[in-house]
Amino acid sequence: MANYQETLTSNELCDGLITETTNINHVEVIENVIDSLEQDDSAMVSHTPEGGYLWKFKYGTVEVYVQLTGKSDEDTITVWSAVLPLPAKDEPKLMRHLLEMNCSTTLESRFGIIENQVVVISTRTVADLSPGEVSRLITIVATIADNNDEALQSEFSLT
């Protein structure tokens, strides 16, 4: 008896991967990642009227925020953590330092400024987002923020 293997076209393979990715429950994945990282039962979640979610949890010496704007492919996940209040000492030196770090040490995240605070932030659309990518985004932001907040505050904080 002959043994025939089923061969899939590249379109069928892509369709299968897309189906696997679109069936992911991002809320559940985010909550599992936060459960593995949070400390002192610090995780909190709120729901926005537009159908989004906002989580906050403590990781080391920082608070990390995760925002999911909704569940469609066009919606976004944003992860951020404040590391230094502004104004700061020697802001030109600080900005140069942050830009250099953006180039060499922040991976998929970056330093930025939100409401007079230096933050570590990462954002992307939910289209084709895997559970591993969700975990990586949250972990990278939390780790980079926790690894750099005290040194930045020590060198550049006004207080």
Quickly list its features.
41% helix; six-stranded antiparallel beta sheet; alpha+beta
Summarize the structure.
With about 160 residues, this protein is of the alpha+beta class.
Main beta sheet: strand number and arrangement?
6 strands, antiparallel
Question: How many β-strands, per DSSP?
Answer: 6
Principal-axis shape = globular
- Order of strands across the main sheet: 1-2-3-4-6-5
- The number of helical runs is 4
Domain DCD: 12-143
Pfam family, one: YbjN
Protein name: YbjN domain-containing protein
InterPro entries: Dev_and_cell_death_domain (IPR013989), Put_sensory_transdc_reg_YbjN (IPR019660)
What would you note in describing this structure?
It is built from four helices and six strands; from the N terminus they run H-H-E-E-E-E-H-E-E-H. The model is unreliable at 17-22 (pLDDT under 50). It has helices spanning 10-22, 26-37, 91-104, 131-156, and strands spanning 44-47, 53-59, 62-68, 76-85, 110-114, 117-125. With 159 residues, the protein is of the alpha+beta class. It starts with 9 loop residues before the first helix and ends with a helix. Strands 1-2-3-4-6-5 form a six-stranded antiparallel β-sheet. This is YbjN domain-containing protein. Residues 12-143 form the DCD domain.
